[in-house]
Amino acid sequence: MTKKVTNSLKDSALFLKHALKSPMQVAYFMPSSPWLIDQIAKCAHLHDAKHIMELGPGTGGTTKGILKYMQDDAQLISVEINQKFIDHIEKTIDDKRLSMNNKGAQNLVEIMDEYDWESADVIISGIPFTTLPKGMDKAIMQSIYDALKPGGIFLAYQLRDHVSKLAQPLFGDYTFKKIEFKNIPPMRIYTWMK
Ligand SMILES: C[S@@+](CC[C@H](N)C(=O)[O-])C[C@H]1O[C@@H](n2cnc3c(N)ncnc32)[C@H](O)[C@@H]1O
């Protein structure tokens, strides 16, 4: 059995500080648990993906999980709007496959252009769609759809079901759903194929 990715005390303290400061943006009081991180990475079909995007890495636990499961020649762009989280990830994760970007998940096609990517094979999102400012949820969903290649996988881990209604007009019904009860709070994992 491979070792699960864990969060350090520093990760958790920084996450809590920013959850209190920006509750609508961060949404939970603690980062994803090792069990959730493992399930996200396992459900995302990373084995044959070369271009992977992560939206909302927070303090980087999910980022480490994705890096653990992805191929050596794959690339990961993690998009995060909180500069303190970006600084923390850049200090704590040293992996040449990872690039951090602060442009926001509503600008994925523009972000991919910077890296000369045509499209993404897999997009993994921890963005809290339910608590975003009005209109931003739809803008981010459209951006995900536009950035993903046909046949690509979109995975979202969420506390509430709002994301499935938001994704439906573009992606149709989800292809997979699982609830990770060992996370606090229990978290739903959804995937769609474009
Ligand atoms: C629930 S936290 C998830 C953190 C981490 N992935 C985890 O599971 O522990 C949501 C993250 O989304 C980020 N976020 C919110 N809106 C965003 C946007 N428009 N673009 C990129 N990141 C965003 C927040 O700053 C926060 O780090």
From TrEMBL:
Residues 52-152 form the Methyltransferase domain. This is Phospholipid N-methyltransferase. InterPro entries: Methyltransf_25, SAM-dependent_MTases_sf. Keywords: Methyltransferase, Transferase. SUPFAM superfamilies: S-adenosyl-L-methionine-dependent methyltransferases. One of its GO terms (biological process) is methylation. It holds the Pfam family Methyltransf_25. GO terms for molecular function: methyltransferase activity.
